[in-house]
Queue: 3 jobs
Job 1
Amino acid sequence: MSLLDDVEKVLISEAEIKERVVTLAAEMNAIYTDDDLPILICILKGAFLFLADFTRHLTFRHELDFMEISSYGRGTTSTGTVRILLDLASDVQGRNVIIVEDIVDTGNTLTYILRNFAARRPASIRVATLLSKPSRRQVEVPLDFVGFEVPDEFVIGYGLDFAEQYRNLPFIGVLKPEVYQNF
Ligand code: IMP
């Protein structure tokens, strides 16, 4: 069985993602200048492809850093526990920070991240997320840049995983139920 056989449907195509990444970057280019010198924080692992594509369309000077957060076990529902697996290399005090997320689901992970960042005293903080699942929100979170809103389905591809797999798919898709059931 190939990886693609596990996919029930494509929700957002590769071409749609490419187009949206460009318009999202344009929204950000209209806000920041070189003088702001923001630092984009890629939340690993899910946001790695989004960040890689997105950063290449930004025209203002910026820096990148990475933080790995774990909120899910190997399943499709949150364990409720948020942990920092890898912390930033940079000091963000007094800096303009842009958090880059893959998906905001219940909002618990982002709430944790924003609280954690507030303690580091950045000059400003904005959030860019590729996907948002508003119907699942448990905590309201401020989202400044949203790629796509998705329905209440577990999605994979373009950085997002199920049990660490499927991140390499170039589109956002939904898995066949038997993949979860047989897991
Ligand atoms: P939240 O704390 O419920 O908002 O979940 C946020 C994190 O859970 C995201 O950064 C993802 O890593 C993961 N997640 C939530 N929904 C999905 C999904 O549909 N597919 C893959 N990962 C997901």
Job 2
Amino acid sequence: MSAPDRQSITVFPCPRVAGSLTVPGDKSISHRIVMLAALAAGTTVVRGFLRSADCQALLDAMSRLGASYVFDGDELRIHGTGGTLRAAAEPLDLGNSGTGLRLLAGLLAGQPFTSELTGDASLRSRPMRRIEDPLARMGARVELLGEGGCAPVRIVGGRLYGIEYTPPVASAQVKSCVLLAGLFAEGVTTVVEPTPTRDHTERLLTAMGVPVRTEGTRVSVSGYGSRGPRLAGRDWVVPGDFSSAAFWIVAAAATPGARVEVHGVGLNPRRDALLGVLTRMGASIKVEEDRRSNACERLGTLRVEGGALTGVEVGGPVIADLIDEIPLIAVAAALARGRTVIRDARELRVKESDRIHSVVDNLRRLGVNAEERPDGLTVEGAAEIRGQVSIDSYGDHRIPMAMAILALSATGPVRLDGIGCVNKSYPEFWDHLRKVGAYAE
Ligand code: S3P
């Protein structure tokens, strides 16, 4: 079931989770490839591209800026602009995609025209001062047209100058926005990260011949001035999204007797910290690396066997490497013995929903004793997971998917409402849920 108009689904308890899956392409990498391919000269051929609502919104935006694309079987072909983007007549609507809006803002800051970027109600409620500040320091004029520092974002592009910038929050989106703007600046642009974050932008740029220097937490690019770098189209294979594989990893790890294999999963070291947390909780996970990828990223098969888990404390710099998996850690915690405390995760308050609130509310509906903290949450595990209840997605894709995994262990069927948002990142999720043995209708 991947119909975008379907709004509710009922997931039934599943005592035996087992199966073998290949998850769809990485969302972060798919976004970055689309933008770089649109800048490049010639054709980029992408295999394993994530065909989801967020990626489609970005493809449409890049088409309005002069690139074109076609899906041909399993391949996506993007015809680039050779570096000459054209102004879009209307505002560019990035839908629900924070990555699309924030990275594109960086790319457009050095273009000789004005752009307006917008999105759906959720995206228009998320903080944008974090990109306005560095882009303005570089010389762009950025106006936040929404209330309280939110989108729509108007960018009057122009001449940019390299800066050294320390973002107030650990964010790969902010880092990537500044680095992409830095490509069109005079001089060197350096981002000093408060905590290291996913480095897909750096890896892709390096693979395309743009030197990126990383020294500890300092990441720098040398600008090419207003013409930007000369990039050439090439072939890519996008690894499976670790954050999508994470649902099956947790489903298996927390169900005694379960056995799941996930193939072709991206294993970027800044993305796979969930494996360490689950191992600390007592999970049995084997990683087998596959060296054939041309995605400039590690890739492999994960084999997970279920067992009894125990609660953990999670906090500090590792949070940045786990940020999209915290709803799932809360699910594992609900099934584990003892208490789990998640700290230093205030960023969850400004994701597609306030994820501290949306996770705790839904855990409580399922009978779990969970409490919000200003910067995280506490979960008391091993209570009975209540069936015959309904879950609210809060319009945030990761919430219904995480709660569907918990519903597999409930005492009865669980109805999930507002599930259209799942198409943002994982349209095949419900089919894959059935593939590991669940019944959902
Ligand atoms: C992303 C970075 C993260 C993550 C998001 C995708 C990216 O956001 O939560 O799903 O593609 O760079 P932040 O960088 O804002 O933490």
Job 3
Amino acid sequence: MSKILSIKDKIKKFNKRIQISGDKSLSIRWVLLASQAIGKSKAYNLLMSEDVLAAIACIKKLGIKVRINKNYCEIIGNGINGFRYKENLVINAKNSGTLGRLILGLLIKSPKKIKIIGDKSLSKRDFSRVTLPLEKFGAKFYYKIKNKLPLTLHGSQSIKGIKYLENKGSAQCKSSVMFAALNASGKTSIRAKKSRNHSELLFKYLKIPIKIKKSKKYDFIDIKKPKKINAFNYQIPGDISSSAFFMVLTTLTTNSKLLIKDVNINSSRIGVIVILKKMGAKIFLKNQRNYRGEKISDILIKSSNNLKAINCPPNLNSSAIDEFLVIFLVAAKAKGISYFKDVSELNQKESPRLNWGSKILNMMGIKTELTKDSIKIYGQPNLEIKKPIIIKNYLKDHRVFMMSTIAALTCGGQWKIYDKDSINTSFPSFLKIIKKISN
Ligand code: S3P
């Protein structure tokens, strides 16, 4: 039975301070890289969501010891390509594109065949974007249905470095190739359109031979196989993508104020802050500090009653890629017509998110003009929804659920949002934090 969240009332004004759970991208990368290190690594504030638990389950199946304690998680790595497992192993990436794509890079040298499966949503997503470059290293991939999971990987013992152009601005593609490079002889050279750079920062911190040159649009990354990776402890900072829902909740609620503690504000992730500020949101970064190449900050948000439309510069797309649904919500309440272009990648996510964003705004009474890769949103600053709205059959996309919840709490109407458990993918404490803010 799918659990339904019913919301009938808008949230009342608030002044609160919250802590957000650990960053999903960093949590998955820590699990995967700790599995390749030698010895015991520990992570504090690791995100305990389904995507990360799926990563842990995968490396356990691959013979790695993991212990989950109250305040930290411990992984005992066996070194690069040190996985131990039987013939015909099946691993399950569940809902996680990041896990499914990155782990393939680590498995590129596996002598035995491994099948990788995913849930209904992940099985609709394109995997050729990673298997094409990974084939160039020398591995083989077999699909039942073209470019979709399940797929079978057959690694090779002679993995050689490649030259790769990543032209979508996808950190998953870039990182999958970077992880494969850990196993490759010679040099791997990547020219990558700008995208989140957590893998690069971790490689640097772990002293993996990596050189990076930057131009305006591309990063040029050279990687050589390291002799070994030493075990490493890591304190995972808060997730800016999860924080974004609360930035928008506060922006759209009158006379309110929220402080979010210890959030990762890596410059390749802060598109949401840049875009919302351009639209008139009041967002301030406090107590900024550095941690192992990452930047961390507290974020203070105050309500805004003067939001204006944006013609969103496409060079911000990659740094806000997971936040567009809530950004669209702000556009719905802003004065004027907002325009977001070159955003076709949104339809490659856990659900076709560009289409879902438009559909939900339409249900709310907002006019949109949608194409395959753009959306225009006709804002209504005085929008007050009076009717019932039902959100269901959205492939359990966690961000569709959370965007709908924020819409219900800020725009009125009587909402029934199906598949409450979808939040477990990235942000299990989402509704608890909403409750805390509401009291
Ligand atoms: C992620 C990269 C992004 C993002 C996803 C997490 C990552 O995907 O949407 O939620 O951790 O590398 P793409 O790199 O495919 O855009």
